[in-house]
Amino acid sequence: MQTLYFTLALFLLLNLVAGMWRVLRGPTAADRMLAAQLFGTTSVAVLLLLAQATDKAALRDVALVFALLAAVTAIAFVRRAWSDRETKRDAE
Asked: How far apart are CA 44 and CA 62, in angstroms?
């Protein structure tokens, strides 16, 4: 069963290559932010798979912290993008 977990973790890490392409080539800041969210979500999934495969509970705690940080990052991006939109609209 551990082989399955490690294989799935490797597959998820390979998916991050596609995400890195989007970060580098994303035409808008929103595309880049969604790719960053992909990194956060994938890192949580990989950590949970590794925690299950190695029976280390500490990795579950780290995955929880990463999930919280990803949520805070998304909120910060939306607040910044919203305030920029409001500033542009007020300037017109």
From this structure: 8
Count of all residues that appear for the chain in the document: 92
Angstrom distances, CA of residue 53 to CA of 36, 41, 67, 90: 26, 18, 20, 54
CB 34 within 8 A of CB 15: no
Return d(Cα 48, Cα 59) in angstroms, integer. Answer: 7
Provide the sign of the torsion angle of the four alpha carbons 56, 59, 64, 67, taken in this order. Answer: negative
Going by C-beta distance under 8 Å and a sequence separation of 6 or more, which residues neighbour residue 35?
A: 19, 20, 22, 23, 26
pLDDT in tens, 38-76: 888 999 999 999 999 999 999 999 999 999 998 898 888
